[in-house]
Design brief:
434 residues; Growth Hormone, Chain: A; 2 domains; two-stranded antiparallel ribbon; 18 helices; 2 strands; 79% helix
Length: 434
């Protein structure tokens, strides 16, 4: 039993996966967003804001509650479990209420508050809670450790999507709100077990608190340009990723693979998770962890540039090579999007040390909050403003806008280039070991 208490897998890796595999299901929103809209009598566009609010409050709660995570991971992981489960249960309740009172603004606001604000707090604290603990237990392979947990966040969609779809199909009338109530219980149990298991290495707390550490903001001021650079390239990577991922299903249909949308969406989710684990583990082999971001941005620029040059989306599947290039783009962007997340805490620890890393990481995650509000909306705005919708050949009921999707790539290409310039110029060398 004593060995289990000091086992890094039991005390760090498993609880991290339990927490992240639960909160990562926030990305399953697209599975049921239309069902929610239909059930409560609102447009899909109106309900979409619940997801945007969830990502915004994830980043902002991480920024403002980072100090709580720094001081007490048991308190923060419990807050995460309670808020995430309560948010899901509350969402289920207001969906039920909306079904009984179709078109009720109270139901819509209730969903915004529960899925967006309350769940968002659970997301932010739950995302941060295991990260520093993992880096302490796996000091020699920090990237692998954080990548493992964050991969759980990315893989959650691939794991939970078929389960949610099965529940929706089997629960009958009102299945959408019943699903939320059932999953609220399931995820609370998973996260509460993670909360009970999560612990820092024995003796670390005493050693860490033997001298008073500087505040996170004071630590950041030691290298402000580096922090601004990390924040900006993180923000741009997420914005580009969300812009493309939000249009992913329509792009796949546009290139003539309508029947493979579900399969390819699962494959891109696997690349997302694999990028989180693979890029972070690879980064452990470099002296300067920023090298991995240079690789991510170069690959993203190359893949996007090839589809822009070949007009791969507007080609609409008439050329097999161009179709393959579009698929490669989706795989590369998903992997780079995931890798951008998993390498942030370790990159920050290289520059600012381990003291206050949870708080510093939390402040950095505010970039995720703003990207959550701009990425999807930017892509939607571009698709609406450029090109026109046309019926897909062989699927007259499916409307696509190939010119609009292609135009999204022009914008993301520019943003990726800006991110690469920031990566090469603003993010300095890692902190020298003393």
């Amino acid at each position: 039993m004593e060995n289990l208490k000091q086992n890094k897998w039991v005390r760090a890796a498993i609880p991290a996966l339990l927490l992240h595999c639960s909160i990562g299901t926030v990305y399953c929103w697209s599975i049921f967003s239309q069902e929610i809209a239909d059930y409560i009598g609102f447009s899909k566009g109106a309900t979409e804001w619940a997801f945007s609010f969830a990502i915004f409050f994830l980043g902002m709660s991480a920024a403002f509650l980072g100090n709580i995570v720094e001081k007490d991971i048991h308190k923060s992981s419990l807050i995460a479990a309670i808020c995430f489960a309560a948010g899901m249960a509350g969402t289920g309740f207001f969906i039920w209420y909306g079904g009984a009172h179709r078109g009720s603004i109270l139901a819509l606001i209730g969903i915004y508050v529960c899925y967006g604000f309350i769940m968002g707090i659970g997301l932010g604290t739950g995302y941060l809670s295991p990260v520093k603990t993992l880096m302490l237990w796996f000091e020699d392979r920090k990237g692998l450790a954080t990548g493992l947990a964050v991969a759980g966040f990315g893989a959650a969609k691939a794991i939970a999507s078929p389960i949610m779809q099965a529940l929706l199909n089997s629960l009958g009338e009102g299945g959408i709100y019943k699903m939320f109530l059932i999953l609220a219980v399931v995820y609370f149990v998973m996260m509460f077990v993670g909360h009970l298991l999560l612990a820092k290495p024995a003796g670390w707390h005493e050693a860490a608190t033997s001298e008073k550490g500087a505040r996170a903001i004071d630590v950041i001021k030691e290298k402000p340009v580096t922090f601004i650079g990390i924040w900006l390239m993180f923000y741009l990577n997420i914005t580009c990723g969300l812009a493309l991922i939000s249009q992913e299903k329509m792009i796949i249909k546009c290139i003539g693979l309508v029947g493979m949308v579900g399969v390819l969406s699962s494959i891109t989710a696997v690349f997302n998770a694999a990028g989180r684990l693979g890029f972070s583990a690879w980064a452990d082999t470099f002296k300067d962890r920023n090298t991995i971001y240079k690789i991510i941005f170069i690959l993203s620029i190359a893949a996007t540039g090839l589809v822009v040059l070949t007009q791969g989306i507007t080609n609409m599947g008439q050329n097999t090579l161009f179709m393959i290039l579009v698929l490669i783009l989706l795989f590369v962007v998903n992997a780079g999007y995931g890798g951008g997340f998993s390498n942030v805490p370790t990159l920050l620890s290289d520059h600012y040390g381990m003291k206050n890393i949870s708080a510093i990481h939390g402040i950095t995650l505010s970039a995720w909050a703003f990207a959550g509000l701009t990425g999807n909306q930017m892509a939607s705005f571009i698709v609406k403003r450029f090109g026109t919708e046309i019926p897909l050949e062989g699927h007259a009921d499916t409307m696509v806008n190939p010119t609009g999707y292609q135009m999204v790539l022009y914008v993301t290409l520019v943003l990726y280039i800006v991110a690469a310039i920031i990566c090469f110029t603003m993010v300095g060398r890692k902190k020298k070991e003393k």
